[in-house]
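TA notes. Do not distribute before section.
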Amino acid sequence: MSCKSSSSMVLGYWDIRGLAHAIRMLLEYTDTSYEEKRYTCGEAPDYDRSQWLDVKFKLDLDFPNLPYLMDGKNKLTQSNAILRYIARKHNMCGDTEEEKIRVDIMENQIMDFRMQLVRLCYNSDHENLKPQYLEQLPSQLKQFSLFLGKFSWFAGEKLTFVDFLTYDVLDQNRMFEPKCLDEFPNLKAFMCRFEVMFHAPFPQKQAQAPYTLLVPLSLPNTNFYIKGSMVRQLQASKSWEEPGLCTP
C-alpha cells in the first residue's frame, strides 16, 4: 500500500490483478499518493463477494462498481475513466491531435483484445476453446505490431496511459502463451522498454511497491486463476541489464 499523505487517493478493487493493474502501475509511475482498499472474493463453491456487496451502495458512487477511485470530492468508476483521470493530471493523454487519436484507438482496441482472453478464461468450456484462441492470437498481435511500427510508444514517441494498459494486456497473453510475442520484435522491444522505463524511477522501493505484490491474476472462478502469483516483479527479468534487448 502506498500512503504518502492524509489526502491520498483511494483505489478500491478485488484482491487481484484484473482491471486495476494498469491503474496501480500508473499511480506508482506518477508517484501519486494513494491507498488501496482490496476486497476478497471467497473460494469455491460459493465465491462469497459479501466484502464488496455489503458496501457497494454505501460509497456514494454514481455507478457502483470495481474498480473505483476516490480523490476528495471526485469519485470515479470504470477502469479506463480512472486511468484517464490520473493521466490528465500528468499530461499523459497525448499532445498532438495524431497522438490523441492513437490513444483513443488503442484504449478501445486493447480492451476488446483483453475481453477475448477474459471470456475464454471464464468460460466453462475453456479447454476446448483454447486452441482456437491460440490460433487467432498471432493475427491479433500482428495488428498491434503494425500499429506500433517503429514508434517507441503506442501514441508515438510520447508515453501515455495506453502504454500501461497495453503492457498489462500483452503481459497477460504472454503468461497464457509465453512465446506469443516471439514473432513480433517490436512488441517484445516495447515490453522491455516499458519494464526499463518503469523500473528506473524506483530502484530503492522495488520490494515493497504494490505492483510487485504476488496476487492472483483474476478471481478464483476463472480457468486462468493461479493463486498467489501472476503479478510480475519487473526487476526479476533484469531486462535493463541486457543492452540492445529493447530495440527490435
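Switch to the second chain here.
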Amino acid sequence: MELVVGLLGKKVLWEKGCEAANVMMEFDRADSGYALEKIFQLFWSGMIRIKGIGSNDYLSPLTNNSSIFKLYAPQDYVAIVVGNITSVVQKIHREGGRKFGILNLGPLGCLPRLRAANVAAGGNGECVEQVTALAKLHNVLLSQKLQLLQKGLKDFKYSYFDVFTASIATIQNPSKFGFKEVKSACCGSGPFRGYFSCGGKRGMKKYELCDNPKDYLFFDAIHRTEAANLQSAEAMWGGPPNITGPYNLQSLFLL
C-alpha cells in the first residue's frame, strides 16, 4: 500500500489501497476558514492522519445492484469493511503514525441518491432505513475497534468525529445550522435531484442547479456542500466531546 499524506492547494491527496481504506479524507469543494485551514496544515505536516472512509463500500453495491449483500449478512459485511479500515490504521501505526482523526458514517439512507431510489421503488422519498442501519452497525463496530486499538497500540491517540449524530441534528433542525434544504441536492435531476447528472455528466445532459448552494446540506446526490463541510471542519477542530472525542483535533494536536 502506498501511503500519501499531503495537500495540493485544497485538494487532499488519497491513500492508495483497498476499497474500504481508499481515502485519507476529502472535503469536497472545500471552503476556506480558520478551522479548515488548521486541519489542512496538520495534514500537510503529517502529524495527524485523518481518515473518513467506508461509505462507498455500502453505497456502491446498493446503487449498482450488486449481489454482495446476498452473499453476506449485514453484520458480516460490516465486519469486513471495518476490519479493512483497522488494518490500514495498524499499518500506518507501524510506519510511525501515532495521532489519527477518524470520521464515522453519516445516515447514508438520507442521501438524495437514496431518497430518489426510494421514490423509484414506489416510496415517498423518506430515508432508506436499511441503508442507514448499515451505517449504524459500521459506527458501533468502528468505535469498539478504535478503543481496542488505543489499548493495544503504543502511543495511539485518536479523534473520533461523530458524523452521524451531527448529520441527524442538522436534518432534524436545519435552520439552527443555517440550512433551508436538507433533503434535496443543489445540483442534479430527478426526485430530490438525486440522480448524478450535475454538469451534464453520466449521459444525462439535463440537470437542475440551485441558486444558492449555501442553503443546501447536499451539493449533489451524495456529496455535501462547502457550507456543510466547513461546519464539519469546525466541529472536528474544536467540537465538544459528544460529537468529537476522546479528543478534538485541536486537543489531539497539543498532546
